[in-house]
Amino acid sequence: MQFLDIGTGIPSADNTHEVAQSVVPESRVVYVDNDPMVLVHARALLTSDPAGATAYLDADLRDPEKILADPQLHTTLDLSQPVGLVLIAVTHFLTDDDRPHEHVARLLDALPSGSWLALTHFTTDHIPNQIVERMYAEFASGRMKQDAVPRDRAEFASGRMKQDAVPRDRAEFARFFTGLELAEPGIVPVTEWRPQVPPEQRPALADASIYGAVARKP
Ligand SMILES: C[S@@+](CC[C@H](N)C(=O)[O-])C[C@H]1O[C@@H](n2cnc3c(N)ncnc32)[C@H](O)[C@@H]1O
Asked: Does residue 104 share a domain with residue 42?
């Protein structure tokens, strides 16, 4: 098995290669992140099982050409064989001006048939409207110490505002999977994706506010 994990985050328990290699020791994983703090901790990601391999690229999802041209990517992964593209909680850090859908499509283009995409994304779809409106009102009050104040969602997502993350609705989330075959149960809040605990033990949809899906490139 081989994975391209972009937006890796600071290493913690159960990093992608540890989970993959616990099932298939020969698994190979390339990690990519643009945060210097993650780079500082990257050594913890290079603890591959000797049967497999891992690599870390200091690169940006907004520059897929750089990722795809990196020699370390090609020494670690065989792009003639299916790859799992892992984008967990990262695309919502790209504004609409950053063109996240285009970059995900470009990466998928470079992967062969039989590859998979796993992607999760912040949404406000399950947060009651009055709370979303209050969120914008809070920004407008200046209490959030924004440099500038978004008037509405369109401005919030435009990239002209200083913000942490851009929520996207179901349709915008679904666009990441254009041309792919969704695995069951399709596009759902992550708490509903093959849950292993009963409903009463899961967070409320509004508390999670993250869509997730896994899909195969035909
Ligand atoms: C919320 S963390 C998710 C970490 C990990 N995927 C997980 O689910 O635990 C988001 C990560 O994406 C990285 N990131 C944000 N924007 C990025 C970009 N444009 N290119 C690469 N990485 C990015 C951040 O540095 C951070 O490490």
From this structure: yes
Q: How far apart are CA 36 and CA 15, in angstroms?
A: 18
Number of domains in the chain: 2
- Global pTM reads 0.90
Q: Please list every protein residue whose CB sits less than 6 Å from any atom of ligand 1.
A: 6-9, 32-35, 38, 60-62, 88-90, 93-94
Asked whether residue 91 falls in the same domain as residue 187, the answer is yes
Residue 32: closest CA among 51, 23, 45, 50:
45
pLDDT the model gives residue 146: 46
Query: Do 154 and 83 fall into the same domain?
Result: no
> Which tens digit of pLDDT belongs to each residue from 77-132?
999 999 999 999 999 989 888 999 999 999 999 999 999 999 999 898 998 888 88
Same domain for 76 and 18: yes
Give the model confidence (pLDDT) of 44-66 as tens digits.
888 999 999 999 999 999 999 99
CA-nearest residue for atom 13, ligand 1, is 7
Question: 6: CA distance to ligand 1 center in Å?
Answer: 7
Find the domain containing 146 and state its range: 125-164
* 146 and 208 housed in the same domain: no
From CA 203, how far away is CA 195, in angstroms rounded? 11
